[in-house]
Amino acid sequence: MRPVYTREEVTLTNLPYDTLVKRLARERNARLEAENLLEQKSLELYEKNQDLAASLVMFDKERTLMSAVFNARSSGLVLTDNALRIVRLNLSASTLLDVPQKPELAAPLTTFLGGSEDTNAWISARSGPQARFDDSTVEGEVTRPDGEKLPVRISCTEIGHDGLLLWILVDIRQHLLIEAEKELLEHSLNQAQKMEALGTLASGVAHEINTPIQYVGDNVKFFQEFYDGVVGLLKAYDPLREAVIEKNILADLTTAIAEQYEEGDIDFLLEEAPVAIEQSLHGLQQVASIVSAIREFSHPGDAELQTVDINSVIETTLSVSRNSWKHVAELEQDMDEDLPEIIGQPGDLHQVLLNLIGNAADAIEESSPSAGGQIRIGTRKAGKWVEVSISDNGTGIDEATRERIFDPFFTTKAPGKGTGQGLAIVYKIVHVKHGGQVTVDSKPGEGTTFRLKFPRAQQTNH
Amino acid sequence: MKGIVFNEFFSLVDEAFGAEVTEKIIVDAELANDGAYTGVGNYDTAEMVRLVKCLHAETNVPVADLLQTFGKHLLGIFKAGHTAYFESCKSLFEFVRSVEDQIHVDVLKLYPDAELPHLTATQVSSDELSLVYRSSRRMADLAEGLLWGAIDHYGETIELTRTELPDVDGDQCAQFTLVRR
Ligand code: HEM
Ligand SMILES: Nc1ncnc2c1ncn2[C@@H]1O[C@H](COP(=O)(O)OP(=O)(O)OP(=O)(O)O)[C@@H](O)[C@H]1O
Ligand SMILES: [Mg+2]
Questions:
Q1: Interface pTM (ipTM) of the complex?
Q2: Is there a contact between A164 and A79 (Cβ–Cβ < 8 Å)?
Q3: Class of domain B98-180
Q4: Can you give the residue ranges of every domain in chain B?
């Protein structure tokens, strides 16, 4: 289309002069206007061009952005046509399916994606001319070229042109793991609740025992004094008896006394009774200390920080846990007798020590060293720190395992035996609650040492 | 309205009534630019209406006749400049049908500000075509002239009848029925 003009102009020479002048003036004005118009149009064209160039730049940026977003998605994104032939893959999808990110791949998605009968039906319902779409997702699996299968969650939406479909594949390995972990956690929570109930029961029992133990102890001490008194008295009678025998008087009385001695085996009793009393007192002392350990241990709830003597916490833990290690290991203690106190929470610290001792016993039981199991517990000052070390001559920990031992739920133990929480709890209590540090030294086949460092309590100047 | 329409109008008036008449109506119509139109420019349609009225006053020829003659003349001009449209259409009906969907569409590509009518062509039977004109510029007479010009070009024997239709939103509406004999 272009403008048209009259071919046959009126023959100008036929026109009168003034008409000619008028027409000339009009022609000139029309020309000027045409020039203006041309300039205006040129400017418009230039601006349109600028706009277009800007749009192109924007479009290009948008495209770069889209493809960056497409590739940055952690889910596998697969574009297919409506016959499910792959058109494009993002990076995650290419990694997930283990196929190159080439658009010319054109392989059907179903060579990589499938699952149960339901899953396959779900997928094929989204192909072909009768395809239908909704927000649903389905679980299926990706089969990689090497045959490896990975669980995925699948969803699919229409792009809206050219029959393109966007498939979103989410790798749910992690998710399944977390589910399993959650189950474990629930299990161990149950366990913890049971332990707590047991603790409450134990502390009740300990409390009940405490009172009789107290007065039995008092009474035994009373008998000890009584014995000492009676023995003193008897001893005071001895010279009298000997003098009477020497003078040979009151023979019937001395004979009766001698008979009484014989009959009651009094010499033996006198000799053994102090030992028996001593032993009873010792036994009672032990019972009392176990009872107090149980009571202290089953009240970890008082979260308030206090100054703690680590040595005494260790003693308590050892007496409570003795049963769990005494059949696998000898215990060696190397305690710094004037260890500074630390600020802490005795209940938590018991827990830490129990876990470490339990692990040591487990490691020893597993390796059963020929020289016999050895658990060594030591404490010492180390500058501003108080250090506790727990060593064993058990299996040791290899490099790869060492990196993960503090992970919650990491365990190398048989299901039902370890929940893998022990060291996670240790870590949390030492680092988070006490501002301390846990380190581990280990040689596979030789043994392991866990070192705990706690900041020592601020020294108060008297 | 495009300047070209004005300029063609002037050349038709020159031809039909003489240059003095042209100069007279340009003065009488009191045009904004004293009658200097550039073909690609866009101007108020009211100026064309005033020019036609002044021409009527000057010549006593009815406005309808003037517009129809102008239409016929205009078609000749279009034909000279755009033979391709006419060559690509084998018959009058085909040409008339193509105006709305093809020719006027191309006009708009070149002149986005062009003011064009709505033309609705309906093939009633193989020998009958109906064309409904609708425009706020109220130039059904011009359309009729253009149609006559086209009929002349194709040289077919056509009976053209025109029926005035009621206005729609202030737009003039008319139906042209073309029957091939
Ligand atoms: C029988 C065929 C045609 C009919 C009935 C027709 C009808 C019309 C009418 C009635 C107008 C005036 C505006 C209005 O009333 O709103 C118009 C304007 C116009 N037509 Fe057509 N036309 C036809 C063919 C053509 C052809 C073949 C061309 C060019 C190749 C053309 C180009 C134009 C142009 C440039 C305008 C002026 C637009 C303006 O002033 O802004 N027409 N047409
Ligand atoms: N003293 C040790 N010697 C050898 N391996 C150890 C020792 N302590 C911990 N480990 C390793 O670290 C893993 C994690 O220990 P952690 O105490 O966190 O869990 P667990 O003992 O397996 O289970 P839980 O303590 O919950 O019953 C153990 O499974 C074991 O492989
Ligand atoms: Mg453990």
A1: 0.77
A2: yes
A3: alpha beta
A4: 3-61, 98-180
